[in-house]
Automatic annotation (TrEMBL):
Transmembrane segments: none
Gene Ontology molecular function, alphabetical: DNA binding; DNA-binding transcription factor activity, RNA polymerase II-specific; zinc ion binding
Name of the featured protein: Zn(2)-C6 fungal-type domain-containing protein
Any one biological process term the GO annotation gives: DNA-templated transcription
Domain called Zn(2)-C6 fungal-type: residue spans: 35-66
Listed SUPFAM superfamilies: Zn2/Cys6 DNA-binding domain
Pfam families according to UniProt: Fungal_trans
Organism, as annotated: Exophiala aquamarina CBS 119918
Residue span of region Disordered: 80-106
UniProt keyword list: DNA-binding, Metal-binding, Nucleus, Transcription, Transcription regulation
Amino acid sequence: MPQSPSNNEPHKKRRFKIQSEFGNARQWRSRKSRPCDICRKRKTACVIEDRPPCLFCKGRGLDCTSSLEPQTVVQRFSSLPSLDQDEEPPVSLQTPIDGPPPESPVFQEHITPSSVEVDHTMLSPATSVEQMRRRDHFVNLYPSTPSRHEGSLEPKIYTLEDNKNQTAHSMGLSAEQDTNLLATYRSVIINESNRVAGDIIKVYPGNVSAGAPPLHFYILSDLFMPYDNCLKEECSQLIESKVEYHGPSLVRLYFRYVHPVYCIVSKVRFLRSYKEDRFSIPASLRGAIYGLGAVFWNHDPELSAITRPFEQYELFQAAQTSLERELEAPNLWKMQACLLMLHERAAGNGVFETPRTWTLSAQAVACAQMIGLHRDPSEWNIASWEKSLRKKLWWATYITDTWSSVSHGNPPHIHKDFYGTSNLDMEDLRYDEDVPEDLQHMVDISSTCFEVSTAARFLELVKLTQILGGLLDASFPRAAMNCTGIALDPNEGVGPLHLAYFATQVLLLRALMSPGSAAAKNDPQSSLRRYFPLAIEQMGYFLTFTNEITLEALQSFWGRREFSSSTLSRRQEI
């Protein structure tokens, strides 16, 4: 049999040239489209749907560019004597585990026309593409030690809030995934193939000596049922159609009359988003702010000249309907809506607080826990503005829950052992309060700057509520107290704080005088007889306070919790 001429010749090397480019759509593991610099250096899958940024950079707010000019990439293969020009060379899908990535755009590698990129993995020819995809799903986003190939990347500060179409959900110790096991990864588990609607991010590595466990968040894609999307859109359009062109005026009224008393809305962030695209703000929050601002319709010279074209309950009804669907993906916007939803104006004939305040407070607590507000963010690797806002919203939730429990005599949803959020300070409340010049036309002059008095009142309300919470947790202990008179100035927005003080004082006196039985009345040594003169003295201060409330102060924003506060104080007086 004649011998093939190729058997007498040295093996020839076949050369394939692949021209790569950047800027167009790029499929997963594409050879013809070059990955961006960040994905190339991190060795992550670079997927571009239409044009840059890629999914990785887009989801994390990174600059998606490629500094390499289109160059020729050369791959070489060893051809076998029995192969002609149209046949495939042997398969060898090996990449050294510890080998450094190529520093030059020209490199050598064994491939086939159907091969894919393989990084940090040793594969056999029988390995399926799907298996390789599964192996490549998870990589480290925040390396615990700098990589020698990432020296050009500056450290990034990430946010749990501003990820488009994604929300962050807190993972507790009893979650499906073991947080201590997840902490053994260098920092984070990321789905790179974009086939799973979620990632896991570590925001705090934990502290073994302090007994603090690591903390992770699910980063989930906001995927809703079509019915949910339609319902939210209907509610959003209904709210805007009700307020018509008065929306900006209602926002101005809200920040003029409500925000100084209950400063839980992120003012500048809201105004910025409202100016650029009001529909980017959840309908629940827009509806609640419109509704609370509408209470002061007649305080605006222009609005008072016309009849209000809607009722407050119409806005709150649409806002609550939307919120029920929005809580599929809770975030800080929707948390603010939960807190405002409780302050819908009560019916004029209301004598007792309705159970609705209790259920809405439970909703607020659940939302806060889902987004991790009950965990202290001080050491997290997130933006400083988010740390401050998260702390402020948690303590607003604590206030809501504690006073709602007093309204109905129920135990609070929040127990002192189940949260670790650090206390607020003035700087936390200062954030986002100074309105920049380009947004100042949206609020009154009095609302453009940070008000120290507003922040101080909120801080004192938090402290007072902590005292009340301790009182409730201890089931009304018999403890000494030092009660002194207070200077009353209800015209400066301090009315709700004073009323909360008197209500807390009433509960303490009631506990000290317990039980208020007929036998106790006849026993000179009973607690009732012992503390009764003190109770009478302290209620004299309450009478002085009520006598000094002006009509203007009475018509200001007090909040629903003050209904219970005033009821407690009046009953003690009786």
